Amino acid sequence: MEGRTQSFQQLKPLCVALSQDALALNGPRPNIPAVTSGLDGLKSALCKLVSKPHCLDPKLADYIFFPISQVLKLSQRVPLRCLELCLECIAILINQGWAQQIQTQLAAQIVILCTLMAEKTPKGFVFRESSAELQIAAFSCLQNVFAAAGSSLECVAFFRSEGNFPQLGQTISTILDGISDSGTAKTQITATHALSALVCNVADREICASFLPGIVSKLTKILVPTTKRRRNHQVLVGGLEVLERMLKETLSDDPPVASIESKKLKPSRATDGVISEKWKQNAATQLKPALTSVVRLRTHDRDDVRGALADLCLVLLERCRKSLANCSQLALETLLTLSAGRSDSTSSTSIRLEILLKANPTFATLLQTTVHDWLKSLPTVIQGADELEKVRKVQQISAAYGLLGDSQSVTAMIDKMLASALRDSVTITLQAAGAKDEGKQFVSSVQSLDLAVLDKTKDGTDFGSALVQYRGQAEIMGCIEQFVKTISSSSTSASFSADLARSLRYSHGDIQMANFWLLLTATQNALQRRDDVSDFLDFGDDDDKAIHRDCLEELYAFALSTLTASSDEEPPDPRLQALALRALALRAQTAGRDFRYELIDALYPVLSTLATPSEQLQQDSITTLSIFTNACAYPSVRDLIVDNVDYLTNAVALKLNSFDVSPQAPQVLLMMVRLAGARLVPYLEDTVDSIFAVLEQFHGYPLLVEVLFKVLGVVAEEGAKAPLLAVEGVAKAEVAGMMQERWEPLGVDGLAEMLRERIVGDENQREGSAEEREAAPQRPWITTELDEEAKEVEDEDESLTQFDPRLDDTDPPPPAPKTYNLLFKVTELTQHFLPSASPSLRASLLSLVHTTVPAIARHENSFLPLINTLWPEIIPRLDDSEPHVQALALEIVGVLCESAGDFMRTRITQLWPGLLALYRQTAKGISDSAFATTTDRAKQQRHVGSSALVTIPPAAFQRAVTRMQTFPDSYTDTSTRLVWDALTSVLTAAVKSVPLPPELFEDALEMLGPVLESRPEVKTVLENENADAVWLALVKSGLVAVPQTPAAFVGAGKGRAEWRFPEMLT
């Protein structure tokens, strides 16, 4: 009471002011803005009051309604805004004030008024068209009026009276026009709520029957999805609920039980006989096309819309199964589509549909017939171009089959068609993908050996999709896979799998691949499902278990035969190989640790697929190896390979010894070494001997030789990583210790002693010349020089042996004897193939030698004779026509210098002219590329220096090298830059590791001059040899400023010397 009093005190001034302003509208000076302001203030006050309970009652609502009614009486003199505010205030009064106690006449007047104002072009008003805001307010009032009237028997009786039919029909028509034709979503939503309130609260069975045709016709146009107009989801949900309510009221097989209040109402019209059997038949005939259009909403993306459509279809099946029997299949198909999703609404739909099938066997029979027809037409649908229709059809069949299984219906007729229908569907999908992949080119196995897939090995145990070739396939194949899992979870899974297993061996091509994939998916799901629950539940179906086990063994045997099949005629399909890998993985997961006994047959084929050109198949192979490792309880894949190395090497050797020239055996060996690393190399001695035998027999086949040497290169690469052979800091120090006599600049004392010796030598020569004459030569001069050089090399080797105290008569064994001997034999073998005509093979062999030399150098007594063996074959490669081969040969010379030290002194001295010639050629290439203009080239050609190594100005050549290093792609081709870098490296290694004569060091300093500033490591090596010479070279090139002598040391008199460094240098 207190709250009502406070509300009255707040509203009274507003109502009085509004009443006065409304009365003034009849006067000569109407104040329309004041009326508008008063209504706006009243609405705001009402909105604040309704937030508090019990602040409004019917009497206070009547008091507030009085000034509003005064404004409404003069509706032709006020603007639309005033009418909008009036209706908004009335809506609040109905909802919070009058509510259930609304007067019948007042409700009728409000309905008439709101119906007029809700029309697009209302009659009886000064304005021609209504506004969206006014329509929203009018529909909101109608919603509240019908909701309040539903609780009043008097109001309900009035609205249901025969005399009110015309007005009720006018109101329904206006609301439907508002939903259909309004341009704003809010207007449509409000109108939908008003229609729902009318149907649910006022309309009875006879009213619904009378207006059913018109409402259904209008709602069908509203609910049917179109591309021109997209309805708001609230409008769609509301329209479906209204349609559901009306069908339930009018066409229900069991008429709804009237409530106690409804029984008290006396019939006041003579329309009780509207609903008859004939009327129902006509209605069913007319409703089917409409419902066929409405169920197109099954593809809507909103869950609430699909849920409302599911409720409508369930009403057709549950409540109207007799009267609308012609719509039962339509409703059932729609429900199957809606239940194929994964949302909460679809889950509840599936449950309700399952209950319905169990309760009514008629629908189960209808569903079986429907699924049978769908399976027959499925391959035809898959051949179409509509991807969404394909997915929808498979989902429908899957959901229907799952419901039949859950309802324990008999599916014998359907089970006979499942395997063939799905096989044909998958085959059609694969053939469509094959047409798109015709342009793909096959990559040779030689190139596949260069793939770095093993460098990014992952430990995952999940496979990707084996058959999906493009994005459009993924969804349909995923739906079919889900359907197969549904089948494998049912009681008929054993017969389905047995049917596929029988046809697996006798099919070919895409049909065989489809059989393989379907059987593998079904068997995997069936075994995993039973393993998950077998510890808790006993199914008692030992026969089914035996069938699935037999299917797994069939898959395992077929997978092994697929992976080990000969590929002489054409390469195997990577998709079939991928399925075979999955079958092997499933067998390993099922067998567990016992699968170790099967590795003798399964491991070799998996490794052979690891070196295929298909990157996806490589990843599948890695995943399979990871599954093998986990199933057999190995710590890692390396342990898996090493523990089974006997089986693997025997298999590889068997193929090599039988002179099988296919790349499979080398690929397997390559992947074994890559996976297991240096631990595997000691076991490969016999296998490498077999490779040598193949090379001896088939040395005329360049491609085979290249493949085998790539394998040997990987073996050498991994073998060089063995702990006892890896060249580290200590080992490099030992190699550096082999250097003996190193030239050093003479000091003053040494220079004086040299001059004394030269004077004594000159005197002895003069004395001897007077007594003796040189005898005539007895043989050619050239032969004499060659003999002297040979004797010098022999004396050098003997002196090296005598000088080094570490070399004694006992020959210590090499570190890691097995691995060392293998690397030595592989390196020694390269001498016979280095003159090959294949540039890639020559490069591969040189790279192999470059890898093995540092490891072999750990045992000097074997390594130094190997240099004598390889040197005659390496040096000609410096004149090779391929720049990258030249660069590799130079790098090997540098490695030999670093590894053999003083042993290379004479060889480097003899090779020096060739290095100078190569330097001049490379320098000319760098200069020609750098100086693009004719002016620079003219300046370059005018410079001639007899003492210089190249006829290029030093400053110009320095700029050319700087440009090459700064902008390599713009000024120099890759081959020239490659040779230059290798030449720089070999010169640096020679200066660092080999004692060179002074004149050779001067040449090296001049050749390395352009890189002294850009490569500090080169400068450091040269400074360690002769820092003064390096400083002088830097001064000459202008990189170091000439120090100036202080003025105190420059004498001006005759008795003092004048020291000026610049004059001395010139």
UniProtKB/TrEMBL annotation:
Ranges of compositional bias, category Acidic residues: 787-799
Domain of life: Eukaryota
GO cellular component: cytoplasm
Biased segments, Basic and acidic residues type: 762-776
Ranges of residues in domain TTI1 N-terminal TPR: 8-339
InterPro entries cross-referenced by the UniProt entry: ARM-like, ARM-type_fold, TELO2-interacting_protein_1, TPR_TTI1_C, TPR_TTI1_N, TTI1_rpt
Region listing for Disordered, in residue ranges: 762-781, 787-814
Residues annotated as domain TTI1 C-terminal TPR: 787-927
Identification of the protein by name: Uncharacterized protein
Species: Salinomyces thailandicus
